[in-house]
Specification:
CATH class: Alpha Beta
Strand content: 5-15%
CATH architecture: Alpha-Beta Barrel
Largest sheet: 7 strands, parallel
Number of domains: 1
Order of helices and strands: HHEHEHHEHEEHEHHEH
CATH topology: TIM Barrel
Radius of gyration: 19 Å
Oligomer: single chain
Strand order of the largest sheet: 1-2-3-4-5-6-7
Structural class: alpha/beta
Helix content: 40-55%
Distance between the termini: 18 Å
Number of strands: 7
């Protein structure tokens, strides 16, 4: 079987127990965010690391828009157009053409809440939500349409699915309120309703900015595989516990700031064996989030080779 068949088998529950798929992700430098340089760098990274899927980084930001000074301003964000996404879609089409026969090709998808960052600082967004969440709902609706347009265009371009990230439920952000449950989560689920028929979807509970106190708000999100950090604010979950909680395979095991970023290949290989000895089954080796941009690709290859060589 090739990588594509193995990963689809994992999702279907028919993965051979002797094979642990693996994938790690990183942002490339700005010179490789668009056009042919982005296409070439994605393929170079995919082949150099030997990972089992190709994830397309989303690097297209919004142009300057209206000044955002109060919650009500978010209702006036201009609508998006298909033409806006064309630079990203060019990359998607070329990577689908180049790699889909070998491995699943999935698109990075930021949640509607995560799109607020393109027009205002995180503290401004958080303050506006706390001040007037009903007004902020208008902005969420507009950004949901942005994301849905990107989803439909990527599906038409042939992607196998999505790496769908969510934020907004971190412990620090809206503690003591129902903002996540009442506003952010429904926007997330509107996107999932559009993508859940894709063959390969990974739910990424993103702790890039801060940890979570609880993962239970996400258990009813769809997704074939769950990628998260088991380290919460006051406890550490086991992968077996996460797999039971979500009722599906998990992806993770390595701290993005841990040994994979600082150790040599031999030590990384030993850490992978230790992680997989205790991991749930089926399991996909990865990191808890995007790796540092200065990480050595040889370190990533060492982790993936160790996963592929692991004997159950």
């Amino acid at each position: 079987m090739n990588k594509r068949e193995r990963l689809l088998n994992l999702i279907d529950g028919a993965a051979p127990s002797s094979y642990i798929p693996a994938a790690f992700f990183m942002h490339f430098d700005p010179d490789h965010h668009q056009g042919q340089p982005a296409i070439d760098k994605h393929l170079e990274f995919f082949h150099a690391t030997g990972m089992d899927l190709l994830k397309i980084q989303y690097e297209q930001i919004l142009p300057p828009s209206i000044p955002i000074t109060k919650p009500e301003d978010w209702a006036n964000i201009p609508p998006c157009t298909e033409e806006f996404f064309e630079p990203t879609l060019h990359i998607v089409r070329e990577l689908v053409r180049a790699a889909k026969a070998e491995a699943p090709v999935i698109m990075t998808l930021y949640s509607p809440f995560m799109w607020f960052k393109y027009l205002a600082e995180a503290e401004v967004v958080r303050a506006h939500f706390r001040e007037n969440p009903d007004a902020m709902k208008k902005g969420l609706e507009i950004f949901t349409e942005y994301v849905l347009m990107l989803v439909r265009l990527c599906k038409a371009a042939g992607v196998d699915g999505f790496y769908a990230s969510t934020q907004g439920g971190e412990a620090f952000r809206f503690k003591g309120t129902t903002i996540f449950q009442d506003f952010i989560k429904p926007a997330d689920l509107a996107v999932w309703a559009e993508i859940e028929d894709a063959p390969v979807n990974i739910l990424h509970v993103c702790d890039y900015n801060a940890p979570y106190a609880d993962l239970s708000p996400f258990v009813d999100y769809p997704g074939h595989v769950v990628n998260c950090n088991p380290q919460l604010t006051e406890s550490t979950l086991s992968w077996a516990g996460i797999a039971r909680m979500f009722g599906r395979p998990c992806m993770g095991g390595l701290d993005r700031h841990g040994l994979i970023a600082s150790a040599g290949p031999a030590e990384i290989g030993r850490e992978v064996v230790h992680v997989l000895d205790d991991a749930s089954r089926p399991f996909m080796l990865g990191a808890d989030c995007t790796l540092p941009s200065d990480i050595k690709w040889d370190n990533i290859r060492a982790a993936i080779d160790a996963a592929h060589a692991y004997k159950v």
